[in-house]
Design a protein that fits this description.
The complex is a heterodimer of chains A (266) and B (401). Chain A has 266 residues and is of the alpha/beta class. Chain A has 11 helices and 10 strands. Chain A has one domain: P-loop containing nucleotide triphosphate hydrolases (Rossmann fold, 3-Layer(aba) Sandwich). Chain A is 35% helix and 23% strand. A 6-stranded mixed β-sheet of chain A has the order 6-7-8-3-9-10, with helices on both faces. The N and C termini of chain A lie far apart (38 Å). Chain B is elongated and about 100 Å long. Chain B contains 19 helices and no strands. Chain B folds into 2 domains: 269 residues, ABC transporter involved in vitamin B12 uptake, BtuC, CATH 1.10.3470; 106 residues, no CATH class. In chain B, helix 2 packs parallel to helix 8 and helix 4 crosses helix 5. Classes of the chains: A alpha/beta (266), B mainly alpha (401). At the A-B interface, helix 3 and helix 4 of A face helix 9, helix 10 and helix 13 of B.
């Protein structure tokens, strides 16, 4: 039954091989009320995609379920045409920074070194080349000078950049970021978007859970609108319109906001 | 007496106990650190109380089969089985019901302990006559410790320690950021379960010396103590092991130095001693340091405000401010600046301007993050950078830097 709903007439395996991330028929529920219902998503390689929707629309949940962090009720996920488990090494995930305790006894550089977990293995020593790589990643987010600081001393924006540096250390091909721009200062926002654009220029795929509608057209080339169910998906020009926004947000956007946005999206 | 005890000169039994307690302390301190970092310290309390029914059932089984009910290996195996069942119950309750972890801990702990006490009472009425000593598992009893017991404790403690060190990297990652660990394909649930399994092993090993009621102290107090002294997780692990080992050794020696001192509780009190010292005296996170920091900060704020007031020719109303200024020779009692005060005030005002520039310029972000309204500019920037900034500000250049 779910499959019939989710595939919406297309064959489930048609273009999966060409996509960086393909989600089919994903349903996630906390208790009896689905947070994400029967969602399909196809992310093109090299695209920079924003996942957009109102609060509680299931944006973060969808991302977590796609990565197996929360267990979905149903659905399939393929990454670069293969099952998720075989492609884990090519994925870098940046969680919401509020999801960890920043009083944890560790330094900035130690957090970035966690990105090299696979390389270091269980007992491998942290060598100077590992440190150099971590420093380079910190440099790319403008946090080199902070390497030896205790993470509890960082501002929210700096914490976010440390998380981004950790994901850079993984040398992944697919980057999934959960609200990286939430509650950060302007300098951090600039630094993060600069890094993300450089990733895109290097041919990487970037997917971002995003909440700020005003910056969508500046930052992204693809959007995915969700409100428990998929609302729209495609290039910004196609899928980020006054109609799709109205459909995703319903009455939740103030009329003034809609007017302002329709000027942006044309 | 005490010095003899510390040098293991008090005889065979006392030396065995001291060595066993040291090993137990090290492995409990190290294992407990990961539990503490994962914020699940109290789970160990449920695990330890869940050992009691196992101890009793193992005793009954061994007696029923005609063996010596007091065989330590048999009793420890029994305790491990029931502790493991308790742990699985706890995991099931937290995951599959709406019960929060604290409530689940309370339920498992009390039910298993209650069952254990019932079994203990039954054993005492069985009249086997050989049951003497099972109550010793509640608070530990080292009086009749045998060489074989010490070997069991040593092997158990050492292998737990080795496993912990092997798994330290994944356990640290899971403790800091479980979502990220899951996204990287780490089996978070299994790592958590393995961690709890190791805690259970330490608990079981510690039954003889510290007892099931107090083992939680040896798991929690050393890492909490270590946390006061360092901001790095690997050092918390190391220090936790050292504090645990020292507590075990000193506690065992102390209790051997005088008659009728219980070993387990003394070990716990010694570790509390380390905790209390750290709580008050640790350089950054300690209570004393926090109080001192507060007063020093308050004085710096007043001094700075006073200097800025002098620089702008404003009157000073606060008595503390004036007192600090006069004591430093920067102002006279009537609030008029001295020559030295005028120079310092001008410098303070100048620094305000420089900070303004630093904080609005992205290239100085690391320095700007240190801004607290008080800090001397020279502590965050080089001379050249200051000259550069003064250039941007313009105005009189003659102010001493």
């Amino acid at each position: 039954m779910l499959d019939l709903v989710s595939n919406q007439g297309t064959s489930p395996t048609d273009t999966l091989g060409d996509s960086s991330l393909a989600i089919r028929g994903l349903t996630v529920s906390y208790g009896q009320k689905p947070a994400v219902f029967s969602v399909d998503m196809t992310v093109q390689p090299g695209a920079m995609t924003a996942i957009i929707g109102p609060n509680g629309a299931g944006k973060s949940t969808m991302l977590k379920a796609a990565l197996g962090i929360v267990k979905p009720l149903s659905g399939q996920v393929t990454v670069f045409g293969e099952p998720l488990e075989q492609q884990r090494a090519r994925i870098a995930y940046v969680p919401q920074r509020a999801s960890v305790d920043w009083d944890f006894p560790t330094r900035v550089i130690d957090v970035v070194l966690m990105g090299l977990y696979r390389e270091l293995g269980l007992l491998g020593r942290v060598r100077s080349r590992h440190k150099a790589k971590a420093m380079d990643c910190l440099h790319r987010v403008g946090m080199r000078d902070f390497a030896d600081r205790q993470i509890g001393q960082l501002s929210g924006g700096q914490q976010q950049r440390v998380f981004l540096a950790r994901s850079l250390a993984q040398d992944a091909d697919l980057y999934l970021l959960d609200e990286p721009f939430a509650g950060v200062d302007a300098a951090t926002e600039k630094a993060i978007i600069g890094v993300l654009k450089s990733l895109k220029d290097a041919g990487k795929t970037v997917v971002v859970v995003h909440h700020d509608l005003a910056t969508v057209t500046d930052y992204f080339d693809h959007v995915f609108l969700i409100n428990t169910r998929k609302v729209a998906e495609g290039s910004v020009a196609e899928a980020f319109t006054a109609d799709t926004l109205q459909a995703a947000y319903g009455g939740r956007l103030a009329t003034a906001q809609v007017d302002q946005l329709s000027r942006v999206v044309g | 007496m005490l010095s003899d005890a510390l040098l293991l000169q008090l005889g065979y039994n006392a030396s065995l106990v001291a060595i066993g307690a040291t090993l137990l302390g090290v492995s409990a301190g190290v294992t407990g650190t990961f539990l503490f970092l994962r914020k699940r310290a109290l789970v160990s309390d449920a695990i330890s109380h869940a050992t009691l029914p196992g101890v009793c059932l193992a005793f009954m089984l061994m007696v029923a089969f005609g063996g010596d009910g007091r065989n330590l290996v048999g009793l420890l195996l029994g305790s491990a089985v029931s502790a493991w069942i308790g742990l699985l119950c706890l995991n099931w309750l937290t995951r599959n019901t709406r019960l929060a972890e604290d409530a689940a801990i309370g339920s498992v702990l009390s039910v298993f302990f209650g069952l254990g006490i019932v079994l203990l009472t039954v054993i005492q009425t069985m009249g086997v006559g050989r049951q003497a000593g099972l109550e010793g598992f509640l608070l530990g009893s080292t009086a009749g410790m045998l060489w074989a017991d010490a070997v069991v404790i040593a092997i158990g403690g050492a292998s737990t320690l080795a496993l912990i060190l092997l798994m330290r990297r994944p356990m640290t990652l899971v403790a800091f950021d479980p979502e990220y660990a899951a996204a990287r394909g780490l089996p978070v649930d299994r790592i958590d379960l393995a961690m709890m399994g190791l805690v259970m092993a330490v608990t079981v090993v510690g039954l003889k010396i510290v007892g099931l009621i107090l083992i939680v102290a040896l798991l929690i107090i050393p890492p909490v103590t270590a946390r006061f002294w360092t901001e790095r997780s690997d050092r918390v692990v190391l220090l936790g092991g050292i504090v645990g080992g020292l507590s075990g050794y000193l506690g065992a020696a102390l209790s051997a130095s005088a008659p009728n001192l219980p070993t387990g509780p003394i070990i716990v009190l010694v570790s509390f001693g380390f905790f209390a010292i750290s709580l008050f005296l640790a350089p950054n996170r300690g209570v004393l340091a926090a109080i001192l920091r507060h007063f020093r900060f308050q004085r710096r704020v007043h001094l700075r405000q006073g200097l800025l007031a002098l620089a702008q020719g404003q009157p000073i109303y606060e008595r503390l401010t004036l007192r600090l200024l006069t004591r430093a020779g920067l102002a006279r009692a009537d609030g008029v600046a001295t020559e030295a005060g005028k120079a310092r005030a001008a410098k303070a005002l100048r620094d305000e301007k420089r900070w303004e520039v630093i904080r609005s310029d992205q290239t100085h972000e690391a320095a700007a993050a240190l801004y607290d309204g008080l800090r001397d500019i020279e502590t965050v920037l080089t001379k050249d950078q200051i000259v550069e900034i003064d250039h941007q500000i313009g105005g009189p250049q003659g102010v001493p830097a």
